[in-house]
Amino acid sequence: MRILSGIQPSGVMHVGNYLGAVKQWVTHQSADSLYCIVDLHALTLELDPSVLREQTIDTLATLVAAGLDPDVCTLFLQSRIAFHAQLNWLLECVATFGELSRMTQFKEKAERKGGYRVGLFTYPVLMAADILLYDTERVPVGDDQLQHLELTREIAERFNNRYGDTFTLPEGMLPPSGARVMDLQEPTHKMSKSVASPLGQITLLDDPRDIERKISRAVTDTDGEVRVDWENKPGVSNLLEIYAGFSDESPHDVARRYERYGELKHDLAELVISSLSPIAQRYRELRADPGALQSVLDAGSLKATHVAATTYQRAARAMGLYAPGA
Ligand code: AQP
Is the distance from the beta carbon of residue 9 to the nearest atom of ligand 1 less than 6 Å? Predict the structure, then answer.
């Protein structure tokens, strides 16, 4: 089954990225899965070019450290494959202004910041191109990307109806727990790389003391009962969700074992530290050899280009462009 997913090199990966997406990527990796560092998407943010370059290699090293094996799956960099931007244009001529205006993420971000880049508005179309280029059947993502995935399906269906059967319709894949991890300090907002929240995020590279400090200071409530109740107890529910994501249980089962917040926080910190420490250690080893990481990207881009070229040309021909293979 063809799987594709991506991550922005927009900061240090956090447990939301890990539980929502990357942990599933590792479980489902095969010769038919492609994972992409979507650096073009990161251009919608204000990032210093040298920071973006560093973060791209950091992201790659973190993905490999988390368990993606470049000898098993294809790991590549979006900007290395020009077909993403080319297919994006074809799809911009299929998507409508109205449907992009309805994207919740755009509305939230545009509200946070005036003078946003046009790319912030159109990036869901580029995401559709990322997915459709590879005849993707399943897209393992966190819950925040489901609306963009639905848009991808709508664009693909419209294209197929208008120009003939061209694209595979992809389906999302959510993890049983951890599909939406919230900020530890503001549990009604999702944990997000590009939002500064030093105490609210646990990154994959945090040292054990920081992990413990962040979990012990996580916002809870005064009710004192350990149970899942997102409406009234978002902080505690979030801690249970993170626990369940790491231990592969249901948050309700975890809740049944605890009577006090302190015990839950203590055990959660231990679980997170023991899960993340090997990743941080492996990351440091990998990061010490940037040449080897570059080679991973070179090899991955070569493999991905072949698939992308075929699909792009099929789509271009269907729309009436003179593309090779006609
Ligand atoms: N809080 C989260 N909980 C579960 N899954 C999450 N994902 C992101 N945040 C959470 C999933 O991680 C994958 C990569 O997404 P991303 O690179 O867009 O991550 P981000 O942390 O959301 O990064 P940014 O730069 O801060 O992006 P925006 O500005 O879009 O929020 C995806 O599969 C995502 O679902």
Answer: no
Contacts of 254 (CB under 8 A, 6+ apart): 240, 243, 244, 247, 264
* Predicted confidence (pLDDT) at residue 213 exceeds the cutoff of 90: yes
DSSP letter at 191?
-
Ligand 1 binding pocket includes 55 (Cβ within 6 Å): no
**What residues have CB less than 8 Å from 134, skipping those under 6 apart?**
2, 4, 34, 304, 307, 308, 311
CB of 7 sitting under 6 A from ligand 1:
yes
- Please, which pLDDT band fits residue 326 given cuts at 50, 70 and 90? low
In angstroms, how far is CA 301 from the centroid of its own chain? 19
The average pLDDT across 192-208 equals 91
Judged against a pLDDT cut of 90, whether residue 112 lies above it is answered with no
Q: What is the CA angle 106-109-111, rounded to 5?
A: 105
The answer as to CATH 1.10.3720.10 being correct for domain 208-285 is no
How many angstroms separate the CA atoms of 158 and 134, rounded?
Answer: 18
* Helices of type H across 39-182: 39-42, 49-65, 83-92, 97-101, 104-112, 118-132, 146-163
Q: Which atom of ligand 1 is nearest to the CA of 178?
A: 4
Task: Please give the positions annotated as active site.
Answer: 109, 190, 193
For the chain, the structural domain boundaries read: 3-175+289-319, 208-285
Measured by CA distance, the residue closest to atom 33 of ligand 1 is: 141
Residue 318 pLDDT class (50, 70, 90 cuts): very high
Tell me the per-residue pLDDT of 14-29, one tens digit each, with 9 for 90 and over. 999 999 999 999 999 9
| Best CA proximity match to 201, nearest among 187, 191, 209 | 191
The CATH code belonging to domain 3-175+289-319 is 3.40.50.620
Is it the case that residue 171 has pLDDT exceeding 90? yes
- Ligand 1, atom 2, lies closest to the CA of 16
Mean per-residue pLDDT, 168-184: 96
pLDDT score recorded for residue 110: 84
